[in-house]
Design brief:
With 228 residues, this protein is of the alpha/beta class. The protein has a single domain, classed as Alpha/Beta hydrolase fold, catalytic domain (Rossmann fold, 3-Layer(aba) Sandwich). The chain has six helices and eight strands. A six-stranded parallel beta sheet has the order 2-1-5-6-7-8, with helices on both faces. Strands 3-4 form a two-stranded antiparallel sheet. Helix 4 links the parallel strand 5 and strand 6. The chain is globular, with a radius of gyration of 16 Å.
């Protein structure tokens, strides 16, 4: 009897600051290979163009610029409204662009969905946590993500964003971060864990990138198996 083919899980992917959908796709090639046939990764580009004069702290945001890489750097919000720049550790009263980014994700869900889950890297992971909060509070009816994967995530320190951390997030989550990450120190990623009810954690000895070595396969697959 022939085996029934399994439909892969569809996951919406949000890149880091100063990346775009194309460069993030290049930098997650190893992850796509690791999860092939089980997961389809769909990439979306942030709406905010990052001025070239800004030397954002996440410029390399992974394993360097790939083909067609980061020549069109994008961001999900700016912590410095006047300079149109971003730093994960910059405290601010207001931010710029977050509403546009939520709209971009909403349109991606409508046009390319449905999606089983959502994955974010660095600033994209911080946005994922905010989107999960909107979903938890029933403020975005189009968001029906069943799980979230947050790589090098963090809690925004912008005062206006604290509203996203007022309710415990019940969505199953996998948090991935590097012990040698100099862009988003693992302490910042651990602080984000408290926002989620029952977070799973995958740590690696490296820096600021999405890990996808064979040693990580089991953790990814065990987490995803619950949703197949």
């Amino acid at each position: 009897m022939a085996a029934v083919s399994q439909t892969p899980l569809r996951v919406l992917c949000l890149h880091g600051y100063r990346q775009n959908s194309g460069s993030f796709r290049d930098k997650t090639g190893a992850l796509r290979k690791l999860l092939k046939k089980r997961v389809e990764l769909v990439y979306v580009t942030a709406p905010l163009g990052v001025p070239e004069v800004c030397s954002g702290q996440e410029k390399n945001g992974g394993s360097g610029s790939g083909p067609g890489g980061d020549e069109d750097p994008r961001g999900w919000w700016f912590s410095d409204v006047r300079e149109r720049s971003f730093s994960a550790q910059q405290e601010c009263q207001e931010s710029l662009g977050l509403d546009d980014s939520v709209k971009t994700v909403r349109e991606a869900v409508k046009d390319q969905g449905p999606f089983d889950g959502i994955l974010g890297f660095s600033q994209g992971a911080a946005l994922v946590a905010m989107l999960c909060s909107l979903q938890e509070q029933n403020l975005e009816p189009d968001f029906r993500f069943r799980f979230a994967i947050l790589v090098a995530g963090f809690r925004s320190v912008c005062e206006k964003h604290q509203k996203f951390y007022t309710v415990p997030l019940l969505i199953p989550s996998l948090h991935v971060f590097g012990q040698e990450d100099r862009v988003i120190p693992d302490k910042m990623s651990r602080e984000l864990l408290t926002t989620f009810q029952d977070p799973r954690v995958l740590t690696h000895p490296g820096g600021h990138f999405v890990p996808a070595a064979s040693a990580h396969r089991q953790t990814y697959q065990e987490f995803l198996k619950r949703f197949e």
